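Figure S4 source data
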Amino acid sequence: MTSTADSPTRPLRRDAARNRRLLLDAGREVFAARGLEATLDEIAHHAGVGVGTAYRHFANKQELAAAIFADDFEQLAASARAALEVDDPWQALVGFIETTVAKQADDRGLHELMTAGTMAEQPIHVDGKLETMRDALFEPVTALVERAKKNGCLRADAAPTDIAAILFMMGVNFTMSEAVGRPVWKRYLWLLLDGLRATPCGKLPVEALDFDELQTALTAAKKH
């Protein structure tokens, strides 16, 4: 028999609602730090609740991930649509990419979800809702790319899939940044973005790695 606390048609008791919030907050932190290989048991421990409590709220980590990342995908889609209202097509495109990459830099789980070829390729198989929401990003991103090309600020042979590839390539740069203790991913993102410009220009936002940092960064990246 399903208890009142577990029934989806009735309000959660105060303690059950508190435990659910603890699990959601802990899940966000653990997925952000460890990626989607983290287990529901680990998340329960981080939340300070029993494993049984975790499984009463979420059948598995997939269900928990869907609850956590649905908001992120909605915010990214809204960000892409809002960028279409920015007057400067280049700044609109770059602003969206920078915002998206910055979110991924702070959240390994989000990066893994966004850059999977298919959701089935991930160590976690979330429901179709997230895959649909991720795919829904493609429409406004395509519009951002085409508007910038029409304006002449984006190279004519650029494609929307180039943006997805850039997001994927940033993963190793996040690892390198963590290893050296500064956000060198911003430098490499700008190198990639500058390659998309019809006329590359502008100073890179982060100084280059020195030799010792390079060795540290590459060692960390190889382990990623």
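Figure S5 source data
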Amino acid sequence: MWSLAVVQDNFNRGDTSHNVRLMESYIVSCARDHPQVKLILFPELATTGYRLTEKVKDVAEYAEGPTFSHLSALAQKFCLYIGYGFVEKGGASLPSTFYNSMNFIGPNGERLATYQKIHLTPLEEHLFTPGRQLVTVDTEMGRFGLLICWDLAFPELSRLLALEGADVLLAPSAWEVPHDQSYRQMASARALDNVVFVATCNHTGRTDDLKFFGKSAIYGPDGRTLNEANREGSGLVVSKIDLGVRQQMKEGFFSMWRDRRNDLYDVRWKGN
């Protein structure tokens, strides 16, 4: 058994230095006040703030840019896994390509994965290129499946990650008013659909024409809320993750994996 933390706050648009300092303050306080936490997750585009203008490209970085280097050192210092959203520059052969991405750093400071958001919202499509790769990460705590925000609206992606063995889905988000009920229901449903844990964190405050409502939460494999942040307030949400409980649920009432009818489903859903 281990603990996971998700962060919600008002990350300033375009002010990477401020946002990284804010992230560092959460990492330091989490290590001090919650030493049982092994992984801390920050929202979508936490390093830049959620900004939907061309100016967001001015603060884009490569996956192993300055922000990664700073957070990598903190991951090593506090022996933590860290997940966070950022604007990713394409490679040298794709200089005009930008992605809405998530980095996943291990406690040795290594970049274990970079996930590029697959499902872009209509507000994002003019800025970012959609990703094309599913990403899971193996750790001593279990296997993680990576999503970002609007990806939660697509059951197919979460199911494919679960088919690849994900125990926990991580979904940093920037979900706006008035859609708080949909945000919570989709995250809960993806947990129950696949009998997995789901951790999602949201912004607070306002950017451009959007207002964010917080409600960051961690859900159990039965879709129940294990812990949830207050609406709009800043802070840290912590919950224990027990994969043994997940296995018990799969072997008990929540037997969907055992009872699936692969003989009737499309071949793409077969497996595991």
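The chain has a mean pLDDT of 93. Residues 16-33 form the longest helix (18 residues).
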